[in-house]
Write a structure and sequence with these properties.
The protein is of the alpha+beta class. It is 21% helix and 30% strand. The protein has two domains: 10-105, Pseudouridine synthase I, catalytic domain, N-terminal subdomain (Alpha-Beta Plaits, 2-Layer Sandwich), CATH 3.30.70; 117-254, Alpha-Beta Plaits (2-Layer Sandwich), CATH 3.30.70. The protein is globular and about 60 Å long. The two termini are 25 Å apart.
Amino acid sequence: MSQAPAPGDKLKLVVAYDGTDFHGFAAQPNVRTVEGVLSNALENVLRSRREVLGMVCAGRTDTGVHAWGQVVSIQTLVAFEPERLRRALNGILGPEIVVRRCERVDPTFDARRSAQWRRYRYTILNRPEPDPFVARYSWWIPEPLDIARLRLAADPFMGLHDFASFCRKGPEGSTTRRRVLESKWIDDGDGTLVYDVRATAFCWQMVRALVGTMVDAATDRLRPGDIMNILRAGNRHEAGQIAPPQGLMLESVGY
């Protein structure tokens, strides 16, 4: 039998959600967001806004982007058994948002700052016809893609680079240097192509820019050999298209 957290304990939630009908994760006025809906459910279960001291997520997903392994840390002022909290939240939020796990963690844990890496997955449906049952979770491209060219295009991203060519400009003084730990394409069969990328951190729209540019390299708009030159250029205008959001999913976060 699990022990109920004492007041002031930190809780870690692993959250999955379908991002189709949300304006991203981060709370914003007058629009529906994952954080806003989750916060409202927490207030409902815990009976008071004052009992939740703050919410931090591992990665702020954009409008239409999904998650299987988003991590959220919260600090509460009330004792509430984690599994009971998980079930109560899922009763309110599911199936659009699901709390897959809820556990007590060290008070110093921070979902964003404690993370060692994030893994994203992008799915492309490469068939002549679209599929209504996967349209919300993939980018349909009827033009044949060369998986060998996609794999060649993915290789240069490995390691520590300045990804300014693949990021939207952030706040002044912010860096676009990121270390990519894994960058690979998987052929799942039946026209399903999956890009897995893992890095210590990502900048704004980075994965979608990488995917869009690699697709250009697989369809003769670019050559796979152009990728390194684009990376070195440090200029967003040198890279290719931005892939649409529905194919992207935050798969997991490592601590």
